[in-house]
Structures are given as structure tokens and as C-alpha cells.
């Protein structure tokens, strides 16, 4: 900037003293203004966070391979695998036919023999074609072999509702796979989550179901230098308190964490201090962090996109009732998707998934700031 000032002032006929005074004013103004280009954290998208995690783990371990539809030549349906085929070649970045049962079975077999496959589903709804391999072949093998066979494999791809893709493309599989012993189930929200949890999943000796969200791929988040370090890794089974509070605990995962944070901001303007917990890991579930928070706030609201029956929220509620019932000052509130197949029409689709205002109303009910739902029925 000073160089530009010198060039511009130099052709204007200014005296050297005037030039010096002008440059000094520029220097002082720069010292007062925040220098975001130098001091602020770098922002990266969730897409780039996943791509960099894959790249670094493939570079660090030649046993890591990527398989799935369009992961190679097309660079990934959502461009998560951009650049990896050129860097690692077709033997490690493998384009497959449209046959989830086939390439998932091959991936599980490769894991039996010591490779570390990352299996990408174009959407996790398609994992139903391969669920026998995920559960019967991957999740159970270590137990059934008395520990002789480990299955270091990651099943990853977009999960939950996107936009206008109908019922057969909009399910949340968090509770589905979390019911199965032998699987670990991770749900990242931010770029930090995506990088740290995917690295942890690839390094883990057990099968991991890694549930991303299509609508979050393009979202940008600030990350620290620590997060960008190639050694960065997040622990599996540990939740993160995204926002501290004292009046009500809100648990959420994946895209719903952002909704919970927006709800907490609205609640704060009404004098309600909400603590927002980003679960990150659905199995194992960080019950200790959840119960510790509830024992502080005495209230709980769970948020998820999936169906309410047998959902993640139901498990959290049970955990709190079992371990912290005497601390509760209000009934637990569950916010979930509607108990119907996802509508295609945009207006009905919005009604079928949780919204920020739903979380706000539930939190206010637990704090006795509004009429309970049962009283209006």
C-alpha cells in the first residue's frame, strides 16, 4: 500500500515533506485499523476441509485408497476428491460402476487384508444397497473373529435432507447405523470437524460411518493454524461445546448445529442463556459432556433432522433421565424431522425438517417462557 502511495504521490508534484506527512498518516491509519489479512483465522469450506484431510492421509499412508462412483475422472460428485486421481493414480483413486453392493464388498475385503479403504456413497441413501456388507461384513467381523480381523474402513458421503430431492434421497442415517455394535458413527458440522474427524476415521482400526451434509459442503468456517496442520486430528467420541450457557442445553449434530447456534442467539436477546453442544460423534456418544451440561442448566432440548421414533434425541433423553433425572427442572424437549417420508414440494419440505424457530419455541417452553405444547392440544 505504501508503494502504491509513493507511485501515486510521486506524479502529483508533491513536495518531499508533503509526501512524508501523507505516508505517515497512511502508516498510522494502518496501525489502528484491524489487519484482517494478517491476523484473522483463515476460512475454508467444508468441501476443502474434507479434500485436504483425504489428501494428507493418502500422502501419509500408501494403504489408504478411495473408491466410489465418479471419485476419479469426475473428481467426485461434490468435488470432495478433486485432484486426487492426478496425484495418486487410478490404483488408489478407483472409479466404480453404479453398484454399491459390489464396490462396498470389495472395500471390506480389502480392509480384511490390511488396506484402509474410504468408500464414498454419492448419497447415504444408496448405502442401503450395501448395508449387508457394512453391518454383517464390516461391523461384526472383529467380534466374530475374536479380534483376529480388524476392518479399518470408512464409509462416507452426504446424509440427511438436501433440497427438492424427494423421500428416497433425504433420510438421516445417524440413528440407523448408531444402533449397530461394531460401527462408529461421526457427523461433522464445521470445517474443523470435517478435517479432524475424517483424519481420525481413516486412522481408526474399526469401521466408521462418516455422515456429511450436502448443503454444508460450500459453507466456510474460520480455522486456526493448528487445524490446518497435517498432524491435526480430533478424538472420536468427544462432543464440543460450541456456545456456553446456563439456562438450557441444546444438543445437535451436522447442519442442525448451525440452527441451534442461531436459536441461541435469538434466545439471548430474550434473556435466555443457551448452551449448544455439537455432538460430532453419534456412536460413541459423549454422555459425560451432555449430562454435565444438563446438570448445570437443568434443561434439555435435542435437535436432529431424522425421524423422531428411535432417534438420536431419544437416546440422549434416556441417558439424561437415567443419569441426571434429579437435576431436570422441566420436561425434556425433542426437535426432529416430521414422522413422514420427505415431501418433494418445497413448502412441505420446509415443514418436514426442523427450523430455527422450532428450537427457540422448545427452549422457551423448557424455561417456562411460553405455554407448553400439551396445554394447547
UniProtKB/TrEMBL annotation:
Compartments it resides in: Mitochondrion matrix
InterPro entries from the UniProt entry: PDHB_mito-type (IPR027110), THDP-binding (IPR029061), Transketo_C/PFOR_II (IPR009014), Transketolase-like_Pyr-bd (IPR005475), Transketolase_C (IPR033248)
Catalytic activity: N(6)-[(R)-lipoyl]-L-lysyl-[protein] + pyruvate + H(+) = N(6)-[(R)-S(8)-acetyldihydrolipoyl]-L-lysyl-[protein] + CO2
Keywords assigned: Metal-binding, Mitochondrion, Oxidoreductase, Potassium, Pyruvate, Thiamine pyrophosphate, Transit peptide
Record-linked Pfam families: Transket_pyr, Transketolase_C
Primary enzyme class: oxidoreductase
The enzyme's E.C. designation: 1.2.4.1
SMART domains for the chain: Transket_pyr (SM00861)
Residue ranges of every copy of the Transketolase-like pyrimidine-binding domain listed in the record: 44-219
Cofactor names: thiamine diphosphate
Single GO MF descriptor: pyruvate dehydrogenase (acetyl-transferring) activity
GO cellular component, one term: mitochondrial matrix
Single biological process term from Gene Ontology: pyruvate decarboxylation to acetyl-CoA
Function text: The pyruvate dehydrogenase complex catalyzes the overall conversion of pyruvate to acetyl-CoA and CO2. The pyruvate dehydrogenase complex catalyzes the overall conversion of pyruvate to acetyl-CoA and CO(2). It contains multiple copies of three enzymatic components: pyruvate dehydrogenase (E1), dihydrolipoamide acetyltransferase (E2) and lipoamide dehydrogenase (E3).
Assembly, per entry: Tetramer of 2 alpha and 2 beta subunits.
Entry protein name: Pyruvate dehydrogenase E1 component subunit beta
Organism: Dioscorea cayennensis subsp. rotundata
Amino acid at each position: 500500500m505504501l508503494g502504491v502511495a509513493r507511485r501515486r504521490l510521486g506524479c502529483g508534484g508533491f513536495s518531499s515533506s508533503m509526501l512524508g506527512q501523507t505516508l505517515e498518516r497512511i502508516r498510522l491509519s494502518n496501525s489502528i485499523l484491524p489487519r484482517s489479512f494478517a491476523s484473522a483465522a483463515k476460512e475454508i469450506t467444508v468441501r476443502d476441509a474434507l479434500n485436504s484431510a483425504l489428501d494428507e492421509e493418502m500422502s501419509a499412508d500408501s494403504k489408504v485408497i478411495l473408491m466410489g462412483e465418479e471419485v476419479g475422472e469426475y473428481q467426485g460428485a461434490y468435488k470432495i476428491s478433486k485432484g486426487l486421481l492426478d496425484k495418486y493414480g487410478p490404483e488408489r483413486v478407483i472409479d466404480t460402476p453404479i453398484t454399491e453392493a459390489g464396490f462396498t464388498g470389495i472395500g471390506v475385503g480389502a480392509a480384511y487384508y490390511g488396506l484402509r479403504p474410504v468408500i464414498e456413497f454419492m448419497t447415504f441413501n444408496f448405502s442401503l444397497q450395501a448395508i449387508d456388507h457394512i453391518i454383517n461384513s464390516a461391523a461384526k467381523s472383529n467380534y466374530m473373529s475374536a479380534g483376529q480381523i480388524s476392518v479399518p474402513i470408512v464409509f462416507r458421503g452426504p446424509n440427511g435432507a438436501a433440497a427438492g430431492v424427494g423421500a428416497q434421497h433425504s433420510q438421516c442415517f445417524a440413528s440407523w447405523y448408531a444402533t449397530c455394535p461394531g460401527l462408529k458413527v461421526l457427523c461433522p458440522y464445521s470445517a474443523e470437524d470435517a478435517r479432524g474427524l475424517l483424519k481420525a476415521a481413516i486412522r481408526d482400526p474399526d469401521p466408521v460411518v462418516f455422515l456429511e451434509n450436502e448443503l454444508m459442503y460450500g459453507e466456510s468456517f474460520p480455522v486456526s493454524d493448528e487445524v490446518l496442520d497435517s498432524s491435526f486430528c480430533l478424538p472420536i467420541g468427544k462432543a464440543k461445546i460450541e456456545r456456553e450457557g446456563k439456562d438450557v442445553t441444546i444438543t445437535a449434530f451436522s447442519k442442525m448445529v448451525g440452527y441451534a447456534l442461531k436459536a441461541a442467539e435469538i434466545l439471548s436477546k430474550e434473556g435466555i442463556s443457551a448452551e449448544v453442544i455439537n455432538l460430532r460423534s453419534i456412536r460413541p456418544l459423549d454422555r459425560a459432556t451432555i449430562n454435565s451440561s444438563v446438570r448445570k442448566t437443568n434443561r434439555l432440548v435435542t435437535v436432529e433432522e431424522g425421524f423422531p421414533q428411535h432417534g438420536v434425541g431419544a437416546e440422549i433423553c434416556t441417558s439424561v433421565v437415567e443419569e441426571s433425572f434429579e437435576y431436570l427442572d422441566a420436561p425434556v424437549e425433542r426437535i426432529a424431522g416430521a414422522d413422514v417420508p420427505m415431501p418433494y414440494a418445497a413448502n412441505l419440505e420446509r415443514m418436514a425438517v426442523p427450523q430455527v424457530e422450532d428450537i427457540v419455541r422448545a427452549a422457551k417452553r423448557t424455561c417456562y417462557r411460553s405455554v407448553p405444547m400439551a396445554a394447547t392440544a
